[in-house]
Amino acid sequence: MVNQAFASRTFPGESAIGKRIASDLSSDESGKADFREIVGVVANVTRSSLAETPMPEIFLPFGQVAAAPPWFALRVTEDPAAYVETIRGVVAQQDATLPVYAVRTNVLTRSTAQQKFQTMLIAAFAAIALVLAAIGLYAVLSYMVAQRTLELGLRMALGAQRADVLTLILRRGLLLSAAGVVVGLAASAALTRYLATLLFHTPGLDALTFAATTSLLILISAASCFWPAWRASRLDPNLTLREH
Q1: Are 170 and 229 in contact (CB under 8 A)?
Q2: Fewer CB atoms < 10 Å away: N or C end of the chain?
Q3: In 10 A of CB 200, how many CB atoms?
């Protein structure tokens, strides 16, 4: 049997089943390579990291070519260590002389440890950047309200309602946020090919992730804009005009 990587590389565009190949692991009594027929194609297997490129592999019957000790991989739903004695018992039922050794648990967790750490690191920096952006937006709008206090007082003295002032300031802040989101989305789309190495079976341009991130940014921006806008809408036009 061969894996999909072997079939795609050796027999591109055609079925590998029925083809005959020779392996260095199998030979006849004279030492000449023995040709074997491919009877099946199996899925690719990653051995050290989920991000590694699958290598071409062939699989020979262990009863005919015992080139290395056999390995068994199990996917379980509970504590892996609880299954060790059960596995030993099943093997002993088949052949009591066969040893079960080099048992390793949580192989998948260990193989993704580096990617998880990198993801957590990027997420931490992203959270810090988001907080700084929210503080910056709040500071800009607060400064704008302070600079335009007289204008806002005049608007309200001439008939503008508090809701009108609130909408005016919110609109200005959300326009700034929307411009930042557009630039950020364009930059993210351009940089996803560099971040794709940290992802596993996840497309770089994931629509759900982009939509969720955009919604979160707009929500936080609106929260940052609300307090300066609400404070502007609470201005007393008489007091404001008297002070200026």
Answers
A1: yes
A2: C
A3: 13
CA angle 225, 231, 232 (to 5 degrees): 90
pTM value?
A: 0.58
- CA angle 117/118/124 to nearest 5° reads 90
The tokens 């392996």 sit on which residue? 23
3-state secondary structure of 135: helix
Percent of the chain with pLDDT over 90: 10
Distances in Å between the Cα of 26 and the Cα atoms of 31, 44, 66, 67 are: 9, 22, 10, 9
According to DSSP, the β-strands at 20-27 and 33-37 are antiparallel
Beta bridge partners of 2: 41, 58
CA–CA distances in Å: residue 225 to residues 25, 64, 128, 137: 70, 73, 19, 7
Positive or negative: CA dihedral 55, 61, 67, 68: positive
